[in-house]
């Protein structure tokens, strides 16, 4: 079984389309777990209407400590051995869940499968296709330029047993919980990349993620998280990573390479 987990708070604009996205996958062995954080709008009423008609929808509505806490509640509730996370305003490509179900039947536990993701703007224009094909921990720790991480969970699925190895989501992390999860996951799971578009991420102006980027806080938070994980590596890997980071810098700033070499030669004399 696949358990799709959707955290939501005041999501009346998208909750119906989110429920329909999962319904229209026509995947029989599935449950859709919706964790509402005590919405003040009509979100709960919409969930109730669909849950009364479709038995695969399970839901709760109560205050939580943020998105990470909501995800953890969904993971604990999940009956499926495969997990997918679908934010209320994102969506899957057609027939993705059937592909996932068939694929995971042959994969060892725990496995993380990552595919590509469309990124859409406020006007519905396709801005970018995220292709996270470098998924080793040393790749991800190089940062966005060399190894962009998966930008949205609509494009990856994994065995629930992965959480037995790495723990749940960090409830103290309210923005980059997915990056924190991925940095832990790739070190513990079998990782498989699929060069197909599975997910769709709406990068909307009124969302937490968009506002975080506009305040230039997202990149700073991302880099601080990478630094934390870099320090956990062995001494050998830290040296290796430092060399790669230096290569990355000169790849982006080739004009600085010759002056740097000249300075080092002069210093050694």
From TrEMBL:
CDD domains: GT_2_WfgS_like (cd06433). This is Glycosyl transferase family 2. Gene3D superfamilies: Spore Coat Polysaccharide Biosynthesis Protein SpsA, Chain A. Residues 3-108 form the Glycosyltransferase 2-like domain. InterPro entries: Glyco_trans_2-like, Nucleotide-diphossugar_trans. GO terms for molecular function: transferase activity. The keyword Transferase applies. Pfam families: Glycos_transf_2 (PF00535). It comes from Rippkaea orientalis (strain PCC 8801 / RF-1) (Cyanothece sp. (strain PCC 8801)). The keyword Transferase applies. The lineage of its organism: Bacteria, Bacillati, Cyanobacteriota, Cyanophyceae, Oscillatoriophycideae. Keywords: Transferase.
């Amino acid at each position: 079984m696949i358990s799709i987990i959707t955290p939501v708070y005041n999501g009346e604009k998208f909750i119906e389309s989110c429920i329909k996205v999962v319904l229209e996958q026509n995947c029989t062995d599935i449950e859709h777990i919706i964790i509402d954080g005590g919405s003040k709008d009509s979100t709960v009423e919409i969930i109730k209407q669909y849950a009364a008609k479709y038995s695969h929808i399970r839901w709760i509505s109560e205050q939580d400590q943020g998105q990470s806490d909501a995800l953890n509640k969904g993971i604990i509730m999940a009956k499926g051995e495969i997990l997918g996370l679908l934010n209320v305003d994102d969506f899957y490509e057609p027939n993705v869940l059937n592909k996932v179900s068939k694929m995971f039947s042959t994969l060892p536990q725990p496995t993380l499968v990552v595919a590509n993701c469309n990124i859409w703007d406020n006007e519905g224009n396709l801005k970018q296709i995220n292709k996270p094909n470098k998924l080793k921990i040393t790749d991800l720790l190089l940062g966005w330029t060399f190894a962009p991480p998966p930008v949205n969970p609509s494009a990856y699925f994994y065995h629930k047993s992965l959480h037995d190895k790495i723990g749940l989501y960090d409830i103290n992390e309210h923005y980059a919980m997915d990056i924190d999860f991925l940095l832990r996951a790739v070190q513990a799971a079998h990782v498989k990349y699929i060069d197909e578009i599975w997910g769709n991420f709406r990068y909307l102006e009124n969302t937490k993620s968009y506002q975080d980027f506009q305040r230039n806080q997202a990149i700073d938070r991302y880099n601080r998280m990478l630094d934390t994980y870099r320090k956990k590596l062995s001494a050998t890997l830290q040296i290796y990573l430092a060399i790669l980071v230096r290569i990355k810098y000169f790849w982006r700033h080739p004009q600085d390479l010759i002056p740097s070499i000249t300075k080092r030669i002069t210093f050694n004399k």
